[in-house]
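One chain shown below:
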Amino acid sequence: MSVISSPPSTEPASAGSLFDVIATGVRCLAGLGLVALVILVSAEIVSRFFFAYSLRVVEELAGYIVVGLTLFGASLAVRKNSLFQVGFLFDALPHGVKRLLDLVYLMLSLAVCGVLIWYALQLVESSYTRGNVAPTFLMTPLWIPQLLIPLGLTFIAVFIVERMIVTLRQGGAE
């Protein structure tokens, strides 16, 4: 009798369904952002090539979308535990040391993330209070795209917490 084994899962270890729902939402937002980016850039290319006319808003909107994609992508990389690792050094350590270093790294990362979220929210509040707008054709109120920064950092923090939970649950596992 032969046993067919399935390939190892590429899904990250989950700390629960709440984290899975948040990850699905982040993936959907990132996907929509990527589709919007492709459509905007394609429309600009077609407009310039065939009509010798620039849409004038694509560069600004594309910049905002790229910031969001970068932060959302980083949060998903944190969830998959595929960000900031030197594997050949880390893998050589005993399990207990790896777990301790993981937890220290995650706690420091969460603290840094918290500080960045705090300052990003202050930036958003300042732009909102002052009524700052982008010096561009759209004159976008700056607090709107600036919200992407604390939002993306919050997703990163959520997935850092998930990694901590998963690491603590795997305590004695080798």
